[in-house]
Amino acid sequence: AIRMTQSPSSFSASTGDRVTITCRASQEISTYIVWYQQKAGEAPNLLIYAASTLQRGVPSRFSGSGSGTDFTLTISRLQSEDFATYYCQQYYSYPYTFGQGTKLEVK
Amino acid sequence: QVTLRESGPALVKPTQTLTLTCSFSGFSLSTNGMCVSWIRQPPGGAPEWLALITWDDDQYYSASLETRLTISKDTSKNQVVLTMTNMDPVDTATYYCARAITWNDGHFPDYWGQGTQVTVSS
């Protein structure tokens, strides 16, 4: 199975900050990666698919980039509602696999 | 709009078989490109992908759980069923179903249900 490694596992930031989360795949996955945001007690919410395509309704401060094995999720100006846990997931080959998550906390 | 809802027992005993049903609306599993996935998430942990069924009835499973899982669909009822045999306390988690759409031969979940908590304990 393809292993997805996220970094950092947790991060403290302030509103207005620019934040970047990375995800590294253990093998080439082209751009077959999605990013989710999850708040406590809720299901994950799709933010980005195909590495860089913003899901409908997601604010433009979220962006994704990368191909091959290295990917990033960037939040350009943190808002209070962005403090949550973020997951990457590859859908290049079965079994699909998730990263271990990045918890974004208030500094 | 697309909605999914998971249903099933909240508590199962070790060695029992878990049966979960995903009831959905807003799309049809007979439509080309549509799929439904099951994903679980242990308390405080990351999601774990379990299984997926496609519009044309292809089934895919987690390699580590393949021998215990069965996914099936009833298109007329807009339901997908997941069974997991030989339940163990480590299977305690929130179980989600999610619609997955096809993009360039891959399938990614775009809409998720609210999840159902399953505890395995004697």
Topology, please?
The complex is a heterodimer of chains A (107) and B (122).
Chain A: E1 4-7, E2 10-13, E3 19-25, E4 33-38, E5 45-49, E6 53-54, E7 62-67, E8 70-75, E9 85-90, E10 97-98, E11 102-106
Parallel strand pairs in A: 2-11
Antiparallel strand pairs in A: 1-3, 3-8, 4-5, 4-9, 5-6, 7-8, 9-10, 9-11
Chain B: E1 3-7, E2 11-12, E3 18-25, E4 34-41, E5 48-54, E6 59-61, E7 69-74, E8 79-84, E9 93-103, E10 106-112, E11 116-120
Parallel strand pairs in B: 2-11
Antiparallel strand pairs in B: 1-3, 3-8, 4-5, 4-9, 5-6, 7-8, 9-10, 9-11
Structural write-up:
The complex is a heterodimer of chains A (107) and B (122). By secondary structure, chain A is mostly beta strands. Chain A has strands at residues 4-7, 10-13, 19-25, 33-38, 45-49, 53-54, 62-67, 70-75, 85-90, 97-98, 102-106. In chain A, strands 2, 4, 5, 6, 9, 10 and 11 form a seven-stranded mixed β-sheet that branches. A four-stranded antiparallel β-sheet of chain A has the order 1-3-8-7, with no helix packed on it. The mean pLDDT of chain A is 96. Chain B is mainly β and 122 residues long. Chain B has strands at 3-7, 11-12, 18-25, 34-41, 48-54, 59-61, 69-74, 79-84, 93-103, 106-112, 116-120. In chain B, the strands form two sheets. In chain B, strands 2, 4, 5, 6, 9, 10 and 11 form a seven-stranded mixed β-sheet that branches. Chain B starts with a strand and ends with a strand. Chain A binds chain B through residues 1, 32, 34, 36, 42-46, 49-50, 55, 87, 89, 91-92, 94-101, and chain B through 37, 46-49, 52, 60-64, 96, 98, 103-104, 106-115.
